[in-house]
Amino acid sequence: MSGASKWRYAVYAMPAVTAIEATLGLFLVAVVARTGVSLTALAVLAAPFLLAALVVRLLLPIAIRADARAVYEATGGAFDGEVYAMAAVPGIFVPVVDSLIALRYLGRSRTALDNHEE
Question: Any stretches that span the bilayer, and where are they (predicted)?
Fold first, then answer.
């Protein structure tokens, strides 16, 4: 994709991470309900994924800003994605919100790139 940076992959990762977190959470609750295994023991098993999810979540504003800069240059200033990077900062604390911001950013920047190529 011309005009986008490698940071875009981190933005793509955010909605996937949120979906996996929700699935993992439901799975853990189901396992605890069926087997009686302690939630703490299961949380220890999920810790590597939770750490990776935290890293993706914390990198989201940085990734959006870096990719927005590349899109801005590719579109000749027609797309300014800084507002999405700023909105992603408080979104770090609300898992669904950060994914919605990432999806909105991806859609708008893709549209800007497509319109600029025409």
Answer: 12-32, 39-64, 84-106
Q: Can you give the pLDDT at residue 1?
A: 55
Instruction: Specify the DSSP class assigned to residue 76.
Output: T
Other beta carbons within 10 Å of 53: 20
Say which amino acid occupies 6: K
- 9 contacts: CB under 8 Å, gap ≥ 6: none
**pLDDT tens digits, one per residue of 75-87:** 888 898 889 999 9
Half-sphere exposure of 44 (CA within 13 A, CB side): 4
Contact indicator for 68, 51 with CB cutoff of 8 Å: no
Least Cα distance to 53 among 81, 25, 28 occurs for: 25
User: Contact at 8 Å (CB) between 1 and 8?
Assistant: yes
pTM of the model: 0.85
